[in-house]
Amino acid sequence: MKKIYIYIVIAALLASCEDFLELEPQNNFTVSGFFENESQLERAVAGAYVKNRAIHGRVQWKVGEFRSDNASFQDNPGVNANLGLEDMDYFIMSVGNDEVALYWSELYDGIIRCNYVLQNIDPVDFIDQRDKNIRKGEALFLRVWYYFNMVQLFGDVPYVVNTVETLDEALSEEFVERVDDDVIYDSLFNDIDQAIEFLPVEHPLEEYGRATRGAALMLKAKMHMAHNQRYDLALPVLEELNSLGYELLDDYESIFNPANKGNGEMIFEIQYSFALGQASNFISRFVPWNSGTDLLVGGENAGAGSGRNQPTKELIDLYQEGDIRKNVNIAYYVTNEGDSIPYMGKYAYPLLDRARQDVNWPMFRYADALLMLAECLNEVNGFDQNAIGILNLIRLRAGVPPYSDASPDPGLVLNGAEGLRNAIARERRLELAFENHRWFDLVRRGEAVAVMQAHGEQQKAEKGILGEQLPDGTSGIIPAQAFTNIRTVFPIPERQVVQFGYTQNEAWQ
């Protein structure tokens, strides 16, 4: 496949790289002059990880969880804190939506960082060739991850695998074209296979948080399942992953507890560290906006930007009595008036300072891999008993009864492969709530449109339609046009279309 170059002004390149590379002297900046030794390459790879941390902190939850039927936002009367985000939740966003533009630019920034590593690593001498291969594997893994998100959410996109060295060189090239997603996937599978070859099963303790062979296998399996539902190809990948020694912890809450980072269930988690000045701050966005300082510390006051990723009544009601995951994933704030407001509790650990947490975000974990394996077994083999066994492992840890053909509870009797398929989907929703998988699961199974239309009807019944009065005398808040046009791909950001002449996605024309 021919190499495609992206138009990027050199000043923008410097801006995207200066926080993880020291360029000396900066007035002699060139691509070829970036890397002269192993230490500089190490910092460049670290920069690619930094972007993944920023993406998860700023936007990944918005596209993977917030716009699904798991989450909405707490209405804040008289305050329009983020109309772009609210429009995303309602499926009424425009091609100029700021949140979509932000996600596009953040992913390409990550891709550019990986490209610098991959284009310049070969001439650099390493003390140990194995370390060089590992760094290359990490950059490949991250670039595949960024592109995987791009093609899932935008379809055909510019496929950028190289960098430019000067402004004149950039401007002399033809405009970047959108590449068919099948072509991109072919290239991504080649890259992830190389990453699997290069990456170790585990890193030394002091390097925890770097990509491993297990993380690369997980990503490859997700790609097979998302792209044309190739469950048959994902199955052996997941079986290999299952042999690497990961485990289900006995206690569900302990998986996410910051005191238990690096536990055996985590395959790849986004690293945040208060001590190193790389703190997380999820809780400040997710607590109710009217909770004041009750749920935060250090004088921080929840405000207009809070109340996001609020659990829906649909999700709350789906948990069975006794399911221990419910109290981990969902918390409640009780107001002085006695109102009980749900909020996302999975990462609601105390702040260590104003707007500072020490909580990691799980990107891939073993329970997810097991449920993927169960799904593949069912799709490939039919009503597979091993798939049922895996499903029940997850349920037993959650404290809910297992499925069984002999169960006296008809709700626990699976009705063939279709019944098992639905049970796995439901368990994924409950187990992985607020880990950014729900939207992608809906799209993969071809259920996004129907599910979100039904979700919209329930939201309108619960919160009322804008301009109409509810039985309790309050006014409805949801625009009438909300949830009437469910599109499973994002628009190409308007600025990109205007600047580079891209053809807009058909659903947005």
Q: How many β-strand runs?
A: 8
Instruction: State which percent range the strand residues make up.
Output: 5-15%
Low-confidence stretches: 1-30, 171-175
The helix-strand sequence is HHEHHHEHEHHHEHEHHEEEHHHHHH
Helix content: 40-55%
Structural shape: globular
How widely separated are the two ends? 29 Å
Describe the structure.
The structure is a single chain. With 509 residues, this protein is mainly alpha-helical. The chain folds into three domains: 1-190, Serine Threonine Protein Phosphatase 5, Tetratricopeptide repeat; 282-352, no CATH class; 365-461, Serine Threonine Protein Phosphatase 5, Tetratricopeptide repeat (Alpha Horseshoe). The chain has 18 helices and eight strands. It has a two-stranded antiparallel ribbon. Strands 2-3 form a two-stranded antiparallel sheet. Strand 6 and strand 7 form a beta hairpin. The longest helix has 29 residues, at 38-66. The model is unreliable at 1-30 and 171-175 (pLDDT under 50).
